[in-house]
Description:
The protein has helices at residues 18-31, 49-63, 67-78, 85-101, 105-118, 123-135, 139-152, 157-169, 173-186, 191-203, 207-220, 225-237, 241-254, 259-271, 275-288, 293-305, 309-322, 327-339, 343-356, 361-373, 377-390, 395-405, 548-552, 556-563, 602-606; strands at residues 414-415, 425-429, 432-437, 440-446, 456-462, 470-482, 485-496, 501-510, 513-514, 516-519, 524-528, 534-538, 576-580, 586-590.
Amino acid sequence: MRRLCARHAAPMTYAKRPVQVAAALGLIAATIALAIAPVRLAAQAPVDEATALHVRNGALALQRGKSDEAVREYTTALEDRTLPDDRRATILNDRGVAYVRLGQTREAIDDFNKAVELFPEYAATYNNRGNLLLALGLPKEALKDFNRAIVLAPGYAAAYNNRAGALMQIGNPQQAIRDFTQAVKLLPAAAAPLAGRGRAHMELGRPHAAIRDFSRAVGSEARFASGYRSRAEAKLKVGYYDEAIEDLSRAIAFDVNNADAHLLRGEAYLSSGNFEASIADFTRFAELRPEDAKGFEMRGLAHAMADVPEAALSDLNRAIELNQRSAIAFAYRAYAYARTGQPEIARSDIATAAKIAPEAAEVLWARAFTDETEGQTDTAIDTYRAALSARPNYKLALDALQRLGGGEAVKGDTVVEGFGTAGWQVVANNGAYFAILPEAPKLRVPLEMLGEGKPRLLSWEEKQRPFQQIGVLTYHSGIIEGASGPEEMEMAAIVDLKSASVVAIQPQRQGKQVATWNWSDNGTVTVASVDGVTDQFQLRQGIAPPSAAFAGRKTQRSRERRYGGTPSWAPWAEDGGFSFNNTGHGNRRKTSRKRQRKPKSIFDLLFN
């Protein structure tokens, strides 16, 4: 049992369950870590040449994943009694990182504590100790360290990102979004804060905003498997089943044994009516996690929907054996019995499920289906609606309502009077808001709120050639608490009238900050949003290029815009990297394409 320094007085056994701690650290790395350039120290006094060699060898060993060797080298270096305090602190910090890799959390905490005592101005140690505390399940203590790191280094992007992760753990996603956004502004091309902000949006019920951030994250890091999986979850929320399947297939290609990705893809296939593919994915999940009832529940449902009742009942019986408190397994078995003309047995399972979870959408859906099979259509419709109230956009209930009563069976739109503009109307439907255009009935623009209030349409602008039938609809998206007080938020939806679709929804204004839009003749629009990210969309075929003589009089930037190449000033340009000073602010520099940085390891991402 050890105590942290005076700032962290709560006692804790840091060495217990190293395997679980290591797993937690892996989760932290996957969800809140961020690669950054180390915070530079002030000029340090030279050290003994032999000591410096041990430090270099330790760093090289750490880079190669030889953490035990790194510990030995750093320990030898620390035997030099002539080391100044600040230099000793940085070596202790690095040895602490090596100890974390080895799962020796007590030793890591000791090193971080000693480093803080010797050099309390070194922000990186607070960030690293905060990450370890977060992995150990102490988010409130971790917050203190992240706060200190940010005070010492206001441009420390990783500390903002990691503090946001701590805020997520204590149940404050709205405040976490502020920190994720600050990290994004400091490092616009980094995937981690974008993905973190996407998860915060998901927790707040904003799937479209989440899709936007997850898309940016996978655009920055093409092999970001968890980013594709997270984007698929968001797409499933809004019914983009085919796109979700594509994302999950990418995630599985990068991580073939990821059980959760197989389960989610199976659910997407099931929602799209591909029973054979869904059963294959649920089978793979069951192979990877044979003691998890979820795989058998979902495969049982798929077999039932595919009219294979024997296999369905076998799976659902196995699910109940694994988890006798699974209301979902009993509900799905009731559905299987009702589907085979055995409503009495179905009623028995429904009664059992209702004792466990009476308000669960799956239980209400199974009850409604049983009512439907017995000809009680009106009762079934009411219960399907109750299932939708329990889970908005629950596809099984939506499909059933459409089957029984068409569009009239589903709760209709309610016009919100006085909130429209230029022919557009705001409607509410099942707790969500949309903008509709009466002359385009297939077009629905989701109006997600980022703060308190209701969506109010502000402007509608149709663009001219080459952007015919492209328009921008802006709306008030609520009031949020900014750094200096309440700030009004506005969003802008890029709408394609020709295809009756929404291309993207971009943050347009926050307080006094306003997005910058660049509409170019090649049919693209570039949006520098107020959330720190620049996005580019190809909307239409561009205007034919001018003659060479005319083009020769244009600037380089004009040529880049007109002919559709990647502009050198864009953050996604291959030769437009960033270097960082001691506060983490970006300074633009050009780098040779041959001099690519070595990829960071997972703990490089976590601990600088």
